[in-house]
Design goal:
The complex is a heterodimer of chains A (844) and B (108). Among the domains of chain A are: 7-85, no CATH class; 124-322, no CATH class; 517-710, no CATH class. Chain A is 54% helix and 16% strand. The longest helix of chain A has 44 residues, at 42-85. In chain A, 37% of the residues are buried. Chain B has one domain: Arc Repressor Mutant, subunit A (Orthogonal Bundle). Chain B is elongated and about 55 Å long. The chains are: A alpha+beta (844), B alpha+beta (108). The interface between A and B is medium-sized, with 21 and 20 residues.
């Protein structure tokens, strides 16, 4: 009905009024609404209706609460008066809680973002990544042909696609850039949810020359043009037709790409249908299959089909949604989620404990108020209600302050954590309910003890001033302080262990030099002319050395079958393989343990090998030099053993590796050592030289030490975050201690005054006041140390190379905690001790 | 018994004058007529509730009508106590007016 009164307004009123009363008002309003509508039109009538409703509601509320409302007003008034009366105290109380909550909100946002990783695919629960294990470790790579073979052999596999990413030189007219292209199969679009902006998902990848672009990439290449049907070229040799535009890949996806292509034109038939490893594959399983059973069935697939080398590799399935959280190497991000969730709880507890401590401390001063209320007729329930209500109101006040400060600090937090978090209340119901529950939880926890404790006062005793001498509540307060400081000390120790490990990683000798070395990715034509390019580069006086390899010394990861003297003929072992140019070991300053490096003079060196110490251990040779060694049936001799260097993250042990100069494999990565005094001109020379040799070349470079730092960025970032949160936790603890110290000094002011009159000096009084706190903090240290040791030992063991948790960290944490506590309490104590005793004794 | 307020006085008067057809709308119309201002519903129902609590008026349920969305009309009727309270305030009004005319207005 078009001319009916606004429905929402009617609903609103029906929340406040019931039965006959409601029907009376609604009836009257509707009748008048119809009259108004005839007189002034529907819009004005509706406005009028709304105005009437809004004016009616306050009156209704007042009537509903009646006397309850009046008592509520009284409670509110007393609460406000209490806040005003003890301004500093209330500030400490509320600010501490707000700070704690702000921490919580930030961390929860962070955790929420981490947990949202890869959760946006509709088929998410049935998607798996194929993994390969060699008995020692599990890798994310699987053979090219595996996914399609499984699909053919087992009905449980509905769809399968490779996802092999490479950086390619992409060109459209004048625009050329390096882009990350992912080689995928036709099934890909049906497995994953990457929404289309343009194009037909059904046919987009049907042709082998199709290419899909993300929106960002499309704009980069095409600007305002319509990209559909246009042709772009890949590596200046392969022409691809744009068949669709995808939405940008969300940042919380572990699969990242700017283009999707079919592998057929790029990789060649043999590779595509073969059993070599170049990247991961994903499969979609049928609903409700038993994954464990399927995994058992497919375990031996590689052995069954790949007859060439008889490698002992087994295939497995990793649930898609676990790929990010349970990474196959390095520390699982889920560990950090646990650490940060623990911090949320600790910080919130510390803030709550402050609140409880401060409120109970103040309780003696409100004893008379409670006595009076009881005499006048308040029940125990009323007192409980009052105090719980008060602390809940304060908690919500703190929540409001916390939300405001989260808004203020979110940009800074995003910068540190390198995320794009935002606090959005409209479409983030989890956060809204979460915040509400946090405030309610904090309010109830903090309010329960004071509420139950204060309501148990007996009015007669209170009014005669004979209560409050029990030692029970002091013990309770002491336990809380010990607990609070234990938590803070655990955080200090954990953070310093993490920082120490980070320092260790930064400064550890990796076994090779990486400063002032540039890395440039070469294209096809440059690889062809490599020798001339190298000569030309070295002609500049600012360029010291030039070398190349098929991978970067920071990440040497490739399964390859090896055979050596003493093994049965067809018995292969997998090992890492690096194809290098001359000068490689010299440039990176890698030391030889035995033998020599490759020599330009010796023709036979083109099939000879250098192995690392780890590989030497594997071969069990006493004298490795001159022994027969082969990779993929290319036989040669071992001419040298290089000292172990850390080729991968320090999480992992150094894995066995073999090096050779093998001209049949592209050495795509060019390394140039430049003069540190003259870097810009050296780079200029490199760019000119390379562009001179290849017209379509795109010059991009990285410094190796930057690449290196990138590897530990996520951990550095988390260490940073942890540092700030630890600082905040300590700060909040100190706020509580400050409040408590000032309260105790205030309570003992007469005692202090009398001591002073009797001749005590200031040092003695300060000592007396601080003694108790020092004792508590020492106990807290003793409790915290073993707990922190237990947890941090677990974390640090996840690194194959790690520093030790020295006793000095515990000492450091203890001294920090003690120092800060002494500073806060001592300040109050000195202030109290310096007061003129007359001022404190003359009253009453 | 304390005196009733001006608002209550006007509402009681309205109920008497409207003779059996006194409900939300008509009372508001009458108030608009005598004061020249349109009062919000809240301003009428609150005193009406108080008058009902004091038993100066009582509610009578009317018949449901279509223009009210099928809801019953609630009619108000003045009680004996209500009459007395109104008379009392009118006495006061009369006295005040009389005194005023004799003094202040006389001198103007």
């Amino acid at each position: 009905m078009k001319n009916a009164p606004p429905k929402f307004a009617v609903w609103l009123l029906s929340r406040f009024l019931f039965g006959l009363e409601l029907s009376e008002k609604l009836g009257d309003l509707e009748e008048d609404f119809l009259i108004k509508q005839k007189e002034r039109g529907i819009l004005k009538a509706k406005l009028w209706y709304w105005k009437q409703i809004l004016l009616t509601i306050p009156v209704c509320i007042k009537n509903i609460f009646g006397w309850g409302g009046i008592m509520f007003q009284n409670y509110l008034k007393i609460a406000v008066r209490n806040i005003k009366k003890h301004k500093a105290f209330s500030f400490i109380n509320i600010a501490g809680l707000a700070l704690g909550m702000a921490c919580c909100i930030l961390i929860l946002l962070w955790v929420q973002d981490e947990l949202s990783f890869d959760k946006f695919h509709k088929n998410g629960d049935n998607l798996y990544r194929l993994t390969t294990s060699d008995g020692e470790g599990t890798g994310s790579s699987s053979p090219w042909a595996l996914a399609q073979t499984l699909k053919k052999d087992y009905p449980e596999f509905l769809k399968g696609s490779r996802f092999i990413t490479r950086t390619y030189n992409i060109k459209y007219k004048e625009n050329k850039f390096y882009e990350t292209a992912a080689m995928v199969d036709e099934d890909f679009l049906g497995m994953f949810t990457f929404p289309f902006i343009k194009g037909n998902p059904k046919t987009a990848l049907a042709n082998i020359n199709s290419v899909l672009l993300t929106e960002e990439t499309a704009i980069k290449f095409f600007g305002d043009e319509d990209p559909l049907g246009k042709t772009i070229s890949l590596e200046n040799s392969i022409d691809l037709t744009v068949t669709g535009i995808l939405e940008n890949v969300p940042s919380n996806s572990h699969m990242q790409f700017s283009l999707l292509v079919r592998p057929e034109l790029i990789a060649g038939e043999n590779r595509i249908n073969g059993w070599s490893f170049d990247g991961p594959s994903y499969v979609l399983l049928k609903d409700g299959v038993n994954v464990k059973e399927v995994e058992k069935k497919i375990a031996g697939t590689i052995k069954k089909y790949d007859k060439r080398f008889n490698l002992n590799l087994t295939s497995g399935l990793q649930p898609f949604t676990e790929i990010y959280l349970y990474a196959l190497n390095g520390t699982h991000p889920v560990v950090y989620i646990y650490i940060f969730s623990a911090i949320v709880v600790i910080v919130l507890l510390i803030a709550c404990i402050n609140f409880m401590n401060l409120t109970t401390a103040k309780s003696s001063q409100r004893a008379k108020e409670i006595g009076m209320r009881k005499v006048i007729g308040a029940q125990r329930g009323d007192i409980i209600k009052q105090f719980l209500g008060e602390s809940i109101i304060l908690a919500f006040l703190a929540l409001v302050i916390a939300i405001v400060s989260v808004y203020l600090f979110l940009p800074v937090f995003n910068e540190i954590s390198e995320k794009e978090l935002s606090l959005n209340f409209i479409n983030n119901s989890e956060i809204v309910t979460g915040l509400f529950l946090i405030a309610l939880f904090t309010g109830i926890i903090s309010g329960t003890y004071p509420a139950l404790y204060l309501s148990s006062y007996r009015p007669v005793q209170v009014l005669k001033n004979t209560v409050l001498k029990g030692s029970g509540r002091h013990i309770f307060r002491k336990v809380l302080i010990v607990f609070q400081f234990s938590a803070a000390v655990i955080l200090i120790i954990s953070t310093s262990v993490i920082l120490k490990q980070m320092q260790y990683i930064r400064t550890k000798d990796m076994g090779f030099k990486r400063d002032h070395i540039l890395r440039v990715t070469l294209d096809e034509s440059l690889i062809q002319k490599y020798e001339t390019v190298k000569k030309e580069l070295l002609s500049d006086k600012d360029i010291f050395q030039v070398s190349a390899a098929n991978n970067i010394p920071l990440s040497i990861n490739s399964f390859n079958p090896f055979w050596w003297e003493g093994r049965a003929l067809e018995d292969y072992e997998t090992m890492n393989f690096v194809c290098v140019d001359f000068d490689y070991f010299e440039m990176f300053g890698m030391k030889m343990k035995y033998g020599r490096t490759f020599s330009k003079e010796l023709q036979s060196d083109s099939t000879n090998y250098i192995i690392n110490e780890a590989a030497l251990k594997l071969t069990e040779f006493d004298n490795p030099l001159g022994k027969k060694f082969a990779m993929w049936k290319t036989e040669g001799e071992i001419i040298g053993v290089v000292r172990d260097f850390n080729s991968n993250s320090l999480h992992d042990e150094i894995s066995p590796a073999a090096f050779m100069i093998y001209n049949n494999i592209d050495k795509r990565n060019l390394f140039v050592k430049v003069n540190s005094q003259n870097i810009p001109s050296a780079i200029d020379h490199i760019e000119k030289t390379l562009s001179g040799f290849s017209t379509n070349f795109i010059f991009e470079y990285n410094f190796l030490d930057e690449d290196f730092n990138e590897q530990y960025k996520s951990e550095e970032r988390l260490a940073d975050l942890l540092k700030y949160f630890t600082f905040l936790a300590i700060f909040i603890s100190c706020l509580g201690l400050l409040g408590l110290a000032s309260f105790i000094a205030e309570q003992k002011r007469k005692e202090i005054a009398i001591r002073k009159v009797l001749g005590a000096n200031i040092a003695r009084i300060v000592g007396d006041l601080s003694k108790d706190f020092v004792k508590l903090i020492l106990i807290a240290n003793i409790i915290a140390a073993p707990i922190a040791y237990y947890f941090m030992n677990g974390w640090i063991e996840s690194f194959a190379f790690h520093t030790n948790i020295g006793w000095e960290l515990f000492l450091f944490a203890g001294i920090i905690a003690l120092g800060i506590a002494l500073l806060t309490t001592g300040f109050q104590a000195i202030k109290a001790a310096n007061k003129n005793p007359v001022d404190n004794l003359k009253c009453e | 018994m304390p005196l009733i307020t001006r608002t209550e006085e006007i509402i009681l008067t309205a109920i008497i004058i409207l003779k059996g057809n006194a409900y939300g709308i008509t009372i508001r119309d009458y108030i608009k007529k005598v004061t020249g201002e349109e009062w919000s519903f809240a301003n009428i129902y609150d005193p009406l509730n108080k008058l009902t609590q004091k038993e100066y008026v009582r509610k009578i349920e009317g018949e449901p009508t279509p223009e009210r969305g099928g809801r019953r009309k609630i009619l108000y009727e003045i009680t004996k106590d209500g009459m007395l309270a109104l008379k009392e305030i009118q006495e006061v009004n009369k006295t005040i007016l009389f005194d005023l005319q004799n003094t202040a207005f006389g001198k103007l």
